[in-house]
Amino acid sequence: MIKPRANVSWQLIAFLLVGAAAIIVDFIGYWILKLFMPIDWAKGLGYIWGIVVVYVGNKFWTFDQPHKSKIETIKFSALYVITLSINVVANDAAIKIWPSDWDGMVYNFEYKLLAGFVVSTTVTAIINFIAQKWWVFKKVAA
Fold this sequence. Notes:
The chain contains four helices and two strands; from the N terminus they run αααββα. It has about 140 residues and is an all-alpha fold. It has one domain (about 5-135). The protein is elongated, with a radius of gyration of 17 Å. The two termini are about 15 Å apart.
């Protein structure tokens, strides 16, 4: 019998729930911090705050890995250094590429920021699920 937590469908749903919590933390941090610092710094710090939520939620709940593991921590940290960079670059690119005028509707800069947030979050969420499931928190055969 397959444990519910070993089922990829269950893990994807749990990953999305944990991710939603992290996105809320990331978004609130980003939106507040952008008032006090450059957008790239605000995006990076918001993302880092979300990382804490993701690590705890996915390690202990989504992928059910309660044991202490230095290698998991190192892998997770390496993954998130890479995806932090991807996240900030994707956010910046989306803000620059997103049109200010689309089908006659003029968008202010806040819409471009929101578009950048959604694009960068989507890109890194896909990468992070795949890497956490099959690399960081991969179950070792007993």
